[in-house]
Amino acid sequence: MIETFALTKQYDPARPPALDQLNLRVQPGEIFCLLGQNGAGKTTTINLLLGFLPPTSGRALINGISVAESPQETRQHVAYLPETVMLYPNLTGLENLAFFSRLAGFRHASSTLHELLTRAGLPAEAHGRRVGTYSKGMRQKVGIAIALAKQAKALLLDEPTSGLDPKASNEFSALLTTLSQDGTAILMATHDIFRAREVGTHIGIMWQGQLMQTLATPQVTAQELESLYLQTVSS
Ligand SMILES: Nc1ncnc2c1ncn2[C@@H]1O[C@H](COP(=O)(O)OP(=O)(O)OP(=O)(O)O)[C@@H](O)[C@H]1O
């Protein structure tokens, strides 16, 4: 479970907070998509949940544990997928997965690692190929396999589908749905309204550090969501 209580971040006392009193709850099995213009506070939210930044006030919790008080422990429960997954280009997909799993404290057998890559949608022929030869979509799949290997119960994603072609983006969304159905709580920052409508169980619209709207996805069509988004960010 991912939770925030009045979570606030003010980088500069002379400027309004980048994140202002955010209250959020993402339960296992839910995919919460955060929409918002550049500078709305999406990445700040994710960085606070990862414990990369201290909050100015408020609390961020992962599985009920305070991120600020126990960052090491909460990081064990979280997998993070940025826009560009950082992998070692000279290692194969399998070697990268083995390395990052070990870093997270897991020593999986080679057969398990292959299984995880396959579950993440990476074709078997690519497992033993250098990551430097992968497409962006393939690197994202290794990122998902790392999340699977960590058995993370919370997944944070920052614009993971930006730059993916529609098919890769569609495959990626299907993977997220499978992961959430397995009981992962997923928070994804994105600019892609239509993808958010398709994959999210809930959608939040942020504007100038505030969560202005939260809706359950079945409540809106993609067109209604787009109008609501434009209305919110033009106010
Ligand atoms: N390290 C920092 N120091 C000072 N200000 C920052 C820092 N990081 C972000 N900001 C400011 O905080 C605000 C929110 O930024 P943030 O990166 O969270 O937005 P975002 O919604 O993720 O935007 P984008 O869609 O462009 O990724 C912006 O005004 C940004 O300039």
UniProtKB/TrEMBL annotation:
Keywords carried by this UniProt record: ATP-binding, Nucleotide-binding, Transport
PROSITE patterns for this protein: ABC_TRANSPORTER_1 (PS00211), ABC_TRANSPORTER_2 (PS50893)
Location of the ABC transporter domain: 2-233
SUPFAM superfamilies according to UniProt: P-loop containing nucleoside triphosphate hydrolases
Pfam family, one: ABC_tran
GO molecular function, one term: ATP binding
UniProt name for this protein: ABC-2 type transport system ATP-binding protein
Organism in which the protein naturally occurs: Catalinimonas alkaloidigena
Taxonomic lineage of the native organism: Bacteria, Pseudomonadati, Bacteroidota, Cytophagia, Cytophagales
